[in-house]
What we know:
By secondary structure, the chain is an all-alpha fold. It is built from ten helices and no strands. Helix 8 runs antiparallel to helix 9.
Amino acid sequence: MTTPVTIFATALERGARxxxxxxxxxxxxxxxxxxxxxxxxxxxxxDLLATARRPRGAARAGxxxxxxxxxxxxxxxxxxxxxxxxxxxxxxxxxxxxxDAALLADEYEPAFLLGMAAFLGTQVSYTAGxxxxxxxxxxxxxxxxxxxxxxxxxxANAAVAPGLDKRLRAPVAxxxxxxxxxxxxxxGTGARAGTGALAFLGSDLLIGLQAAGHVFPGxxxxxxxxxxxxxxxxxxxxxxxxx
Length: 243
């Protein structure tokens, strides 16, 4: 005989089964690492909202967790595909984590320089990874990419340098050259990597303009959105080659 208690128990059991299936789909070993990407998406949305309200402060304490979430995705994706762990990608994300933490206090020059140094490690790591993926071969077919990158770097520094503190000009020029080299190498690798690198470059260009005194409404949100989109494309677009 069916009773209200039986009906409730049956519904509860069905709900539990559906919850378990949903959780399994989220984290199943299917080569995608969905759980980590969901965490990244939630952290990114929270950080963008916090940035829109107040670019600095306790509300952005979750910012240093963004890149570890992407790293977890990359590790899970390769683990389930029986592929080698991409050391250059992980090193780049680790450096970016340090840079994210430092730039939470970027109104202070030492923190700004520390963040720049950490992100220099990111650019060098990514560039090394793209070179291993055959970036030079792709650039030989399209040499104009390297020429355009160098011209863009020179033009951007010419525009930004006059507004920078003299002590920042050389570090900014050096870092931006490494960033440009990374973007050029990414474009020699593929469209997804190239798009991610260009978004990253655009984000940092906005930071350079900000440091030079060129500020406009919504700039902080645009900086973070470009950075997050770029890092997402770079990480998810990194090739997975089974061993």
